[in-house]
UniProtKB/TrEMBL annotation, chains A, B:
Presence of keyword Oxidoreductase: yes
Signal peptide span: none
One matching Pfam family: Acyl-CoA_dh_N
Transmembrane parts of this sequence: none
InterPro entries: Acyl-CoA_dh-like_C_dom (IPR025878), Acyl-CoA_Oxase/DH_mid-dom (IPR006091), Acyl-CoA_Oxase/DH_mid-dom_sf (IPR046373), AcylCo_DH-like_C (IPR036250), AcylCo_DH/oxidase_C (IPR009075), AcylCoA_DH/ox_N (IPR013786), AcylCoA_DH/ox_N_sf (IPR037069), AcylCoA_DH/oxidase_NM_dom_sf (IPR009100)
Essential cofactor(s): FAD
Protein name per Swiss-Prot or TrEMBL: Alkylation response protein AidB-like acyl-CoA dehydrogenase
Organism expressing this protein natively: Rhodovulum iodosum
Amino acid sequence: MPSYTPPVDDMQFLLHEVLQVARADIPGYGEMEPDFTAAVLEEAGKISAELLAPLNAVGDAEGCNLENGVVRTPDGFKAAYGQMCAGGWTALDADPDHGGQGMPYLLHSAVGEMFASANMAFNMYQGLTHGAISALQVHGSDAQKATYLPRMITGQWSGTMNLTEPQCGTDLGLIQTRAEPRPDGSYAITGSKIWISAGEHDLAENIVHLVLAKIPGGPEGTRGISLFLVPKFLPDAEGNPGERNAVACTGLESKMGLHGNATCAMRYEGATGFLVGEPHKGMRAMFTMMNEARLGVGLQGYAQAAAAYQGALDFACERLQGRALSGPANPDGPADPILVHPDVRRMLMHQKSLVEGARALVFWGAELIDRANRAQDAQADALISLLTPVIKGFLTDKGFEATVLAQQVPGGAGYTRDLGLDQFVRDARITMIYEGTNGIQALDLVGRKLALDGGQAMRDFFDMVKAVVKTHADDAELKADFLDPLKAASKDLQAAAMYFVAEGVKKPENALAGSSDFLHLFGHVCLGLMWAKTAAAARAALAEGRGDAGFYETKLATGRYYMARHLPATRLHLARIETGADTVMALPADRF
Amino acid sequence: MPSYTPPVDDMQFLLHEVLQVARADIPGYGEMEPDFTAAVLEEAGKISAELLAPLNAVGDAEGCNLENGVVRTPDGFKAAYGQMCAGGWTALDADPDHGGQGMPYLLHSAVGEMFASANMAFNMYQGLTHGAISALQVHGSDAQKATYLPRMITGQWSGTMNLTEPQCGTDLGLIQTRAEPRPDGSYAITGSKIWISAGEHDLAENIVHLVLAKIPGGPEGTRGISLFLVPKFLPDAEGNPGERNAVACTGLESKMGLHGNATCAMRYEGATGFLVGEPHKGMRAMFTMMNEARLGVGLQGYAQAAAAYQGALDFACERLQGRALSGPANPDGPADPILVHPDVRRMLMHQKSLVEGARALVFWGAELIDRANRAQDAQADALISLLTPVIKGFLTDKGFEATVLAQQVPGGAGYTRDLGLDQFVRDARITMIYEGTNGIQALDLVGRKLALDGGQAMRDFFDMVKAVVKTHADDAELKADFLDPLKAASKDLQAAAMYFVAEGVKKPENALAGSSDFLHLFGHVCLGLMWAKTAAAARAALAEGRGDAGFYETKLATGRYYMARHLPATRLHLARIETGADTVMALPADRF
């Protein structure tokens, strides 16, 4: 089974040398000094490696079991969950007014990567709770906050999101779950929900469901959807779990992976629910959760790749097959470690350069969220709104691809369950689907986000690229290896955006047929930008003679791989986009 | 669970309109008239759809079980195997001198695609036997052929390939299994083999293992390897299964997929083996099996994609979510089928154009094998030798990618086991690994095949491309949509080959760092060539007003998608190749 080595050094480098967080003008960032973040990251890393990673294969093998309406999580999950709560990890970035520690979302994300790499299925129990906390924080009443937030922040109670029904997932206008008003101001919720992650389990003493439903007589479609809070146990006068509510888990999905997390079918039979926010404004409230969840899913995608890479690397260093072209690297052994072979290195560099670039992008995205929320920065808010579908879609598609490549390194051993790499592939696969399939992310990006506010956020992004290129224009090496390729890729992105502007009005299908390619094109430019910034930070450290020169040289070499071998994909995506919808839409439905 | 619709029309089109087999100057092809092949394909299709496909999910769920040395295959496999044997499907292209039906390998391949689409794990039991038959046919003694071939051809006995050992897979020079000569001319085989597909099972009354081992005192490395025939039961004087040989299955691998096929660890304890061919020439004999097996694996790759596509398409036609941009397609329903959405179409066209192009390539490859074997055509032999790693590597990488895309179409439902699409992903995954990982295919292509005979086969390939472009140069529509893109892609392939010639001698790592990209570049040009030929055949039929015009229009539209949206990837692969080994080999081993 794979062991897990927390990437504390890389995270510290990103926080303090690339993002320079302690100097950022964001309330609360001042405390984020290197010693402080190192202490948090090291402790989280220890838990990840020692407590969570060993339970990952257990969760995969055992899965969850439903008996008489009760879901049992895999052996060891309950004890580990208790330790996570006791250690305050569920409260890291939560509101101090309700018992949270008030740290930046950025630190929560860094810690979250480790937890997700070590055990994605386990970490989702608290991940869903985190999303529910955010939604209540923004849209809940003071009374709801007072009752629910403190218990959710400690992890004593957990949370869920209930959107999908058997007849609708993406098209939420079709939901049928009803909320009938009662005289006491509560609602009777009736309906069936499916694919509810952590919908029922034995880790927490209560489960707080956030449920989309329609109040009879409201508007048609998504404009008639409201959000309700439906606790598994109704809180009594002291706020402790009281009467059992009329909500039950009626089945568990049998899935390709993510076995340690209970994916539940839920049945509401006139369950007592409480309106969150205004009637018929449920979609807005749900999007608060969903945007955060989408960033979290992008994180999961590369976190699986990060963990899989470690397993592939271990194998490549230990397995002896063949000899290096340049002469034996292990002359006393029967053969050389396969790490000497160019194609094995290609696979590893492909993963490594993706994972480290992705980490930089997610950290930057988390900083933008902090800037938007803590410094009320509207520009940062618009930018992260634009980047959210890119982070979700690109990092999960590429993260999955990287787990497949990691599994390829050991050959046959990668296909057996013993090595554990197949679990990362199977677990990562869901990240391309849930919280909106990646096709929906692309639609959101091209059909909605791109044009928001006259395309201002997109222009802001291009300005940032230009600023980075300009700032370092005098560094000839940085220019050749990083800035010129970034400029070329950014030009491809601009050409694609222009194509959509020109064609989108004439024939919207021409934009939508290229939406997934656009998302990938944008993703590559984002990672190109991250690598340019990373390389600049590494060059600065080398110039100043700071720290471990080998670390910075490695960063530069890894970035050069990305720029040389990943980034040229922008040209392919642009070429596809510019062919428009003709070849995509040509066939009559009965000729497929 | 997915149903399976045999692609008989497409196969008939390929055989008779693209390849025009009945007119090919290959012995035995004269009988391949449309009515005859249609009858065979329809019967094979019926068995695939009605007998094999329903057992696919059963095999996945039950897997194989080892108890007291006996492997039980999943429920229904034994009866189905009996029906396959009784129907003569194991004997289709086998030598009539030993009871075979003597049909072309091409027809065996067409039938094999259906069997593999319907139930890949099941079909491998007879697939391995087919490979063992081929090896014995070429390298076995007359006595060995007389004893073993008739029983293997009927499927009464099955076959295996035993190469891998715990300490070596790719690097067979390291094998430790010993073959000690005995006075009676037989050998005592001792050693451990792993990952032996169909190494033990309950389908056949005897299992004929072909085993690589070293005769003590022979040359070092791969030059000291010999091939042995080791039957599970030693034939008695009448050739019936007699004494149990000292070979046993000691364990089954727990794998990501392919659960219906037993992947065995085998232990040979002084088992009686018989030399096949000459001592120390085992690698040559094994390559007879392996080349055929590699083509068969390429076929499996796209066959999984073909089956997965059907499942995705069914879902896309039935699932109602959202509305078409161009106005409701299903105005009386609550929403339109998701097939109306451009990104869903993109995913389906991506799969469809790949699968149909891949089918054309494998059919052409099978025809080359027939031409080489039946017409002793050395040029065809050299060409299929060059194309074998491309067919194996490209069609399994892209086939897997297509199964992942098929699983994406239904979103969450694709991730559940109920829909059955995840099995195609998990089963297809092994095709990128076994019979030589795709990295090894790329190494074989660039390090060996490309330069064989001074690069003659590569030149022959380019000549074929040029000939197709020239033949149809006057067809303006064909030129714009198919020939010009093919020419551009072929130019990229030439540039890559030139780069390897120029750099390969100076710095071989520059060639090997680009080997996987070269394999993909080559694969795309092959499929571009297939689509150009396919389009020309469709245009001819339309011009003559033959048959179902909609079928030919669909072919052209599907081909246009390939040329517009798949083929431009050649540019990306070339760009990567031309960056050489620098970024790939830059890191010291301890900095990964």
